[in-house]
Sequence to fold (152 residues):
Amino acid sequence: MTMNAISSPPARRSRTAYLTAVAVAGALGLLSACGGSSHPKPAGTVTPPPITPSTSPTSGQPSAARAANAVTIKNFAFSPAKLTVKAGTKVTWTNTDQDTHTVTSKKGSGGPLKSGGLTTNATYSYTFTKPGTYAYYCTIHPFMTATVEVTP
Fold:
């Protein structure tokens, strides 16, 4: 039996097509698995609706009090990294990352901050009543650190 350069045995073509299909399916499966967050959301986590900042009734601009007492979690960092507020001030953290984060007082500090996992657009608030410096971090990503300094 003589074969020309264009044709190949049917069994070989079938096996090659099968192996190619399996390889493509495997690659697509890996790619689709990589598309999500590297940290699964805890079961039962509820994401609240996005919060829109309050605005001043006269200017329509975000109120200074809201902006001065807010911490944004973005790009695996707390911003601002150091916040100074007066005693009695409520501070609100908002997670704008795709990954879940926490706001937790540093180990051994006895600090009061202990949020659950904050999913995208979730918030956590705490009212600081005593002056002092409160160091905190994300328990999921311990390199994320910041402080709140509370003045009298």
